[in-house]
Amino acid sequence: MTRKTKFPADSASESTHLVLPPDSNVHGTLFGGRIMEWMDVIAGIAAGRHAGGPVVTLSVDSIRFSRPINMADVVILKASVNYAGTTSMEVGVYVEREDPQNEHREHCLTGYFTFVAVDAAGRPRQVPILAPQTDKEKQRYQRAQERRAQRLDASTTK
Length: 158
Fold this sequence. Notes:
By secondary structure, the protein is an alpha+beta fold. The chain has a single domain, classed as Thiol Ester Dehydrase, Chain A (Roll), CATH 3.10.129.10. It has 3 helices and 7 strands, in the order βαβαβββββα. The strands form 2 sheets. A 5-stranded antiparallel sheet has the order 2-4-5-6-3. It starts with a strand and ends with a helix.
């Protein structure tokens, strides 16, 4: 059976959230766990769209805050499949905050999530081939391959 081919734009996903009091800590900034939850959800949507069905999170790496997200900020999350192997995919999530007073946006963090497509019994199943089109997509694909090699190397040296 020939594997289907999909493009990153086919599964790209975006979500928007407003940081409310239950989402924030005593410093008035967004809980790290809440943003990771939002990131996992949007990444799972992108991975599921690419896979054409259920996926499970295998790993999360490289989440680092470059600036805080404040209560009442609007948070914009953008997810895209960067790489697809046989059964797994890396999804990059780019997070921005928007000041509702002036609509100024700034990057706050990026994270990389690895998902595995699963069948009804929870066993890994094949995903479509990813065919990056733009220079940016090709660069993301290459960097994702490098991160995958590093993850695989780290798992075999333990």
